[in-house]
Structure prediction request, 442 residues.
Amino acid sequence: MSMFIGHKLIQEDSTLVLYLEPQLTEFALDFLRKNESEKNKKRTSLENGIYEYISKNLPDLKIGAAKVMLGSMLVASFSFGQAMPSYAQADMNLHQSQMNTSYSVKSGDTLYSISQKFDTTVSHLKKLNHLYSDMIYVGQSLKVVSDQLYNVKYGDTLYTISKKFGTSISHLKQLNNLSGNMIYAGQQLKVIDPHQKIYVVKYGDTLYKIAFMYDTQILPLKTINFLVGDMIYAGQTLYIPDHYMVSDPKSFLVLVNKKYSLSSNYVPPNMVVPNIPFTFNEYHQKKLLRKEAASALERLFNKADQEDIKLFGLSGYRSYERQDAIFTSNVQKKGLKAANQFSAKPGESEHQTGLAIDVTSPSVNYGLSQAFGDTKEGKWLKENAPNFGFIIRYQKGKESITGYQYEPWHIRYVGIEASKEIAQRNIALEEYISNFFSFQAL
Prediction:
């Protein structure tokens, strides 16, 4: 039996990444615990296994270094001190295109051109990257290959492979487009996404407990694991979803952020233009809000006017397409990492709910600035918004929870009961939702 179940080639430094057979977990852990003299014996065994694997599977390549991995854990590194020769470059490119996991979108790229480059399909790319339309932007990082490969050995069956990787026969067949159970030695099968978070079920676990533990929901947990019921068993391996669409976008408590997103075709119901002063006179979709939020905003602005507080609406509803254009522009100006701190990706913006609006005042030149929070208007808004069902959505000190920088101008309608509790407890909407639904389930 080979020590390794698969490999990945890193083109830049000719490094071969080898993935240990899961049955050798004890060997790997023992290797990490041993003293140097005992470790050298096991190191020799590893090195022999590497040479055997290379000679059998990659005979035409010269490898500069090798890393041995057990899942995501580094077990050992080896340097062979020899760079890859030019005659092997074509073969290397072939393996690299198969094993790359991400691609940075360039000017002129489309999902179709990227799918052709990586021998996949547009629908697969969209599913892999949680895309709800064909729009992509320069600098965006797309996952292009999700699955670790396994070389079928003599005697293997779909059943034995599924047990080895903690998955199911139906999942393997779906991943590999197999209509029957026939496989053959040497065949490469997709078995698991190396970036997918997994959890091994323990005694006493329930789907609810696991969903709560990973801040997810039961439905996507069942969907990603092909579960038809709520039954799970100790030792079972479950995939943990890391991103999904919200189930009830019309709820006043809908949570939209970098983990919970809206569909590209979602348009809020019953939107109207609130009777408040805006920074511009002409009609624009960003004047729109859902009727309930608009009515509450009118009462909030009337109260402000009575107390000589000058507030103006700047940007309310924002469609998926408009958010995509805004985010793409911000990425081009600031770069992807910086842009994602103050600008939402399409589908991840609260403005698409029709329940959020950016508010400004003459004291900050009708713009959006963190300095607004220190003005009399900003302080008044923070103190009074909860009385009308609004919260300051992105609070100072909650950046690690909300995923965005402090925005004293961004208010979100959640209803008076929720807004008052959130303000009183000085918590983020994420914390309120978590506590609220945990209590409801008890």
User: Anything to note?
Assistant: The two ends are 50 Å apart (CA to CA). Residues 81-100, 438-442 have pLDDT under 50 and may be disordered.
